Amino acid sequence: MKLTMVAAPPTERRLRALRQLGADYAVHYDMEDLPDDPAELGKIRDHYARFDLPLKVVEAGPAIDRIVMGKDGASEQIERYRRIVGHLGSLGVEVIAYNFMPQVSADAMVVRTAFDAETRGGARTSGFRLADVTAATMPHGEKTIPRERMWDNLERFLHAVVPVAEEAGVRLAMHPDDPPMSPLCGLERIMSSTADFDRLLSISSSASNAITFCIGCFAEMGTDIPALLTRYRDRIPYVHVRDIRGTPDDFIETFPDDGQTDLVAIFRTLHAIDFDGYMRSDHAPQIATDDDAAPDGYTMQGHLFALGYLRGLDHATAPAAPAT
Fold first, then answer.
1. Beta strand 250-254 with 124-129: parallel, antiparallel or unpaired?
2. Spacing of C-alpha 234 from chain mean position
3. Are 177 and 99 in contact (CB under 8 A)?
4. Do the beta carbons of residue 128 and residue 251 sit within 8 Å?
5. What is the mean pLDDT of residues 52-81?
6. Which of 237, 258, 242, 221 is nearest to 296 (CA)?
7. Of 257, 217, 211, 201, which is closest to residue 111 (Cα–Cα)?
C-alpha cells in the first residue's frame, strides 16, 4: 500500500513535514474546483514534485453539483470533467476521489452537527447527532429530487466519463455519503449502503469505475469491513482511514488508535488482498499544538500522528519476508 497525505493548504512547511514523516505521494484536496487549463494543473503537480511527493490522487476534482441534481448546466459540467480527467491522466494522476452528495451548505456536502466535540485528552473533533439536524442547523436551500432520478444522473455521468478515464489511466473512486444515511437534511442521497455500492459497480464493469473505501463511513454503515474489502478488492484504488466512537446516529470522530474499529484486522486484510493502492488518514482531531489554520478535520499535528500510526500498522501487519 502507498501512504499519501493531504496538506490543506499545501504550504512548503506542511509538504516538507509530510515527506519527512514518510508520506510517499501527494493528494491534492480541493473542495472548491479545479482549473481546466493544462498549464495550471501542471503547476499544481510541479508544486508537490518540489518536495519529492508525486501527485497521484486528486480529491473532489471538478465541480459536479449540477450533475448530481440534474440542473441546467449539467451537460457543460460533464464535458468539463471529461477534459480535466484527460489532463490529469497526462500529468500522472491515477485516482480522482469524488462523491455524489448534494450540497448542504455553500462549501460542504459532509454533514456534521458539532465541530467542538472532545475526544482523548480534550482534543477538539467533529461529531454528528441526528437528533440535532434541523432546517436551522443545515439551511441549504436545495430541493430534493427522487433517488431514481439521482441514479439516472449518476449513470449519465459515468457513461460519459468512464471511457475518458480508461483512456487516461485514471480511476474514478466514489466516496460514500458522509454520514451514510438517506434522506438527510431533507435531501435524498444514493451512496449510503453496500447495496448502493453494488449498484454503482454494476453501472460499469470498468476498473475506472471504482470506490474510495472510507473506513469511517463503512463502519458507520455497520458493515463487516474485512469482508467488504475482500468483496470489493479489485475496485478499491484508494482508502481513507478514520475511526469513530458511537452509533450511526450519534458519533464523534477519534484518533485512529482510539476508536471502535479493529484497524489491525483491517490492515491484515489489506495485506491479504494484496492492496497496492493509495491510502491516507482522514478527519484527524485537532491537538493542543495545532496553531495553524486549516479546514475542520485537517489541522496538521493530528494528521502527522495518524500518518505515523498508519505506517506502524502497515509494517506490523505485513507478511514476513521469506527466509533466504
1. antiparallel
2. 18
3. yes
4. yes
5. 96
6. 242
7. 217
Pairing type for strands 95-98 and 55-59 reads parallel
Whether 293 has a pLDDT exceeding 70, the answer reads no
The answer to whether 145 and 102 are in contact (CB under 8 A) is no
CATH fold of 2-317 reads TIM Barrel (3.20.20)
Q: Is the CB of residue 64 less than 8 Å from the CB of residue 81?
A: yes
Nearest to 117 by CA among 270, 4, 283: 283
Q: Can you tell me the distance from the alpha carbon of 291 to that of 238, in angstroms, rounded to the nearest whole number? A: 29
pLDDT of residue 60: 82
* Contact (CB, 8 A) for 178 and 126: no
Instruction: State the cell numbers at 85.
Output: 480527467
The pLDDT score that the predictor gives to residue 189 is 96
Distance CA 130, CA 113 (A): 8
State the pTM of this model.
Answer: 0.94
Q: Are 303 and 285 in contact (CB under 8 A)?
A: no
Other Cβ atoms less than 10 A from the Cβ of 22: the count is 14
User: What is the DSSP secondary structure assignment for residue 108, as one 8-state letter?
Assistant: B
**pLDDT at residue 141, as a whole number:** 75
Residue 109: half-sphere exposure toward Cβ, Cα within 13 Å: 23
Residue ranges of the domains in the chain? 2-317
Q: Which of 320, 222, 317, 219 lies closest to 264 in space, CA to CA?
A: 317
3-state secondary structure of 77: helix
